[in-house]
Design goal:
The complex is a heterodimer. Chain A is 61% helix and 0% strand. By secondary structure, chain A is an all-alpha fold. Chain A is globular, with a radius of gyration of 18 Å. Chain B is built from three helices and nine strands. Classes of the chains: A mainly alpha, B alpha/beta.
Amino acid sequence: MSTVVLEPRVSAALAEFLLSMADDEFVIGFSDSEWTGIAPILEEDVAMSSLAQDELGHARAFYELLAGLLADGRDADAIAYDREPEAYHHARLLDHGRGDWAMTMARRLLYETADAARLASIGEGWPPLAELVAKIRREERYHVMHVLAWADRLARAGGEARARFIAALEMLAPDAGSVLASPDGESALLDAGVLSRPMADAASAWRSEVAAVLGPLGITLDLCQGGAPRGPAAGGAAGDGAAGVDRREPTEAFRWLWGAFTSVRRSEPGATW
Amino acid sequence: MALGRVHVRPSVRAGCDVVSPALPIDATRRITPAGPSPVRDATRRISPDEVRDLLRSVADPEIPTVSIVDLGMVEAIEVLPDRITIELLPTFVGCPAQQIIRDAVIEALGPFGLPVTAEFSFRVPWTSDRISPRGRERLAASGFAPPAEPADVRCPYCASARLAMDSAFGPTQCRSLFYCRDCRQPFEAFKSV
């Protein structure tokens, strides 16, 4: 692996950025895995399980890079699992509970398109990240294909499917921009070439992309220009997220998910699985 | 972090996967290595080609009929006076078989009598273009369509192009599910990444 010595301000900003990306993939991966066994059709059961496995794999790779960067004695598992719910840095969009199938697809649409814009903003400044992202982008292509097919299917179905899909998009819209919130120390990351463009540019490209997907389906979605800040969602549960409130308390939905995904780890601290 | 099931046992028939309990590591090494068994001779320098030949005995446990060499997963082989280092490329970032493959590589190179370091890296992205012609043949013979864009996939049984993609996602991260409208056989196709 190439070694590039980073200035302290760059490595601090990079650590935070890696943690955000890792936590996003980790939380969406676990949320998706909740469909294993109960998806509407068998093919989707397999698809959601496979998507979840991909996302958790990406999270692991990001956590491993972070562990190497921090070199504080924690491995990827320790970073992933040994934190209190308040210490996770995932985007607000992912702080809502799983919801129904239409909500799951609406969120996947907003997340996958935003994540694609984020991955497209990674420069060559830190080769370990650039190399990993080159690989991940090849896999994410299938994720985008999957969710675009569902957006089309739900929106064109009309009736309850379309109504639920649109309601979910509108409920999530205020938090959607949080995936592309500008990270702390963004200018350091840009100077070092870790990022090739500011997140504001990525967010702008993402809004156009979402409009290009939803426009032909007759759906207009207001994705706020400023971009919601990162951090827990304002609502206590799916369905009542409100924009602009930077509340640092995780939602009940996320606390529940945290309890589920850390339960095995906490059952036998220090065990090797 | 364990990421899901690993299918270790061979398929019950071509193209049909089974969920099975984990078997010992040597169950993943069912391909007969070519050439004579290497014997460590302190005066003889081991060539990377010899190492590569021995790695032809190691298979991805999820695709037991194709070696990791033919899958294009072996990126670099370095033979040093005191050790052998192998750089491996994962087919998918979250492939749960990585640890098993790494262990199988170390075990397979045991006859050289040198410590072996085998690590996965992302220095070069693995792509489906890295699968060798022989690898593609063996995939097809096992009932897996070799990687192609969805529109270019052909049935591995009858070569028909009259197919339906049932799902882009299959039993492992690297495979999709198809159905052949001519020979009416469901089959799996390698994703094109």
